[in-house]
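note to self — DONT lose this again. spent like an hour looking for the file last time. sequence + predicted structure for the chain T wanted, 221 res
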Amino acid sequence: MKHSLTFSPQFYITGNQPCPYKEGFIEKKLFTTLDGSKAQSLNDSLSQQGFRRSQNIIYRPNCQKCDSCRSVRIPVEKYQFSRSDRRILRKNNELVRYECAPWATEDQFELFSKYLRNRHYGGGMSEMDNYEFSSMIEESNVSTTVYEYYHANKLIAVSLTDTMSDGLSMVYSFYDVSMSKSSLGKFMILDHIELVREAGLQNLYLGYLVKESRKMKYKRH
């Protein structure tokens, strides 16, 4: 595997697991750990090659009979807001964004649980408890920020975001599903495009897109 690192990480392959996005399909993942002083550079290098971080593991699909997962990266310099994008930004212009340390809160967990029950019921994450949620937010050996979005002093959206050498990576985001007309999933992507630009970086990483999955339609551009 090509990379710009001065060391070679050890990779592993998971066993077979049901695919959360395509019924009847099996998924396997290629992964390695993010440990020690080299974690940030490893995260940067592998993310640029289509890997994805989850806590202190970074992985990519390694499925034998399917290649539907596509790594999505937006070069922000080339991205132009469409009329639909600008409409979504206007809908949410009263939201207040806070930049927080990666520390889990009860409000975040309550919002996360409601989101999963509505959008990912029965999926691999749907039974996560408070402890597992805290691990998802707090276990990171790389530069990680939690962006919280509030409307009228109420938490309505959250993004767990990594900062890399060339951009930002939205590791996981969730929002108030009762506000579907506000297109909060898409709004957070648009807001992160602006964050990347403000930081003088180049790319926004969105993870994997499976075109057949309705759960991922907010990532389509």
